[in-house]
Design brief:
This protein is of the alpha+beta class. The protein has four helices and eight strands, in the order αββαββββααββ. Strand 5 (about 135-140) and strand 6 form a beta hairpin. The longest helix is centred in the N-terminal third of the chain and has 21 residues, at about 10-30.
Length: about 200
Amino acid sequence: MTNFNLTAEQKTELLQLARRTITAYLTTGKLEIIAVDDPALNQDAGAFVTLWRQHDERGRAFADPTLGLRGCIGHVEADQPLFQVVQLMAVSAATNDPRFAPVAPAELPDIRLEISVLSPLFPIRPEEIEVGKHGLVIETGRHRGLLLPEVPMRRGWGREEFLEALCYKAGLPEGCWQQPGAKLYGFTAVTFEEG
């Protein structure tokens, strides 16, 4: 599936499922996946869930919203139903992102959820990359890094800055994307967030 079309209602349902699952897990310690009947949400797809804090420690709104990142975890392979992946990644973003301490229940009212539903990966050459359209994955040996399509747009990066940031994300040196043996993949994403 190269394009994943979701209605406004389906997007809202996924966001609500993610929030309910995080809230239940942080409250009870139990992960209970809520099933849905919608055939579109039962299709296998990869997805990322990103958590954004709305305010800093002093209660002020972030001038740069990207400073409010609170967690982001995803599953790239399209091998599980979308509704399930979203719920699993939501809990993982809240509790298992190694960059942050787990989210406390008291933080939830200040957190905004964002979901990115991914297309399957496809090989891509550097000159084919369209900033803002393509997300990227790089693989070199045991190293792998991924950046979502919206990242370079939020950071004001061009194509080469995007590729260099991808190398950094994978724990690889500058210019790794130009090295023989580096595998570069693209994907597109349908990204939506709570209002």
